Amino acid sequence: MSDTNMITEADLNAYVDGELDPAKRAAVEAYLADNPVESERVAAWRDQTATLRALYGHIADEAVPSRLSPYRLGIERRHRMMRSVTAIAAALVLVVLGGVSGWVGRGYVAPDAFQATLVSEAEAAHALYTPEVLHPVEVNGEDGVHLTKWLSKRLDRSLVIPDLSSDGFSLVGGRLLPAAGSAAALLMYENHDGARVTLYVVPKSGEESAMRFSSTGELTAVSWQVETLGCVLVGSLPRDTLMKLAKASYGSLDSGANI
Asked: Residue 1 domain-assigned?
């Protein structure tokens, strides 16, 4: 029996990709010579392959970005699950504490109630969006002018988006979120190692407050209030690093609040 009668679909694909040994290649070519329909089909495959290589061949030679490595994606998936559980647990604790304090206080509102709610919302937003690879933000950081105008309008506040590049963090972008009784802006930053921090900002009227640390699982939050804004910086970084970033953010947001 001739080898041309043993040609399979896999052989034809391997022929187009140049993966056959000389003997098998000769058998495929003889088969195609005797089968014009199959020959036309293989020619179409070759044209498609050539087009794809012309369009995307340069990308195939590039190294896979570190943010898309299976190892990192696996870690981010585990972190996302842990952070989601942590955020839910924190929210439940706040609900329980709120119920208890409401019964005991009977109308008395603790001075830090607003800040506790603010931190809880900021941690939940951080846990939800920082693991995202394709769509972590709504507006890219490269479109900073539009992002500033958009968030300022929606929060009804003059925002100056902090520039943290001198501290090694570039702006990924931002998004608009619902908050308790208002809107919230979520700004995301990333360093060269892929570590992300988020800055959660809501409109508020009242006195300023000092910066305060709080921790929930792997997350650490630095919260404060300027004249017209409530702010929370969240990340899984050392406290001194977060404090440095928070102080830089405070300077920008405070200047914007006084414009």
From this structure: no
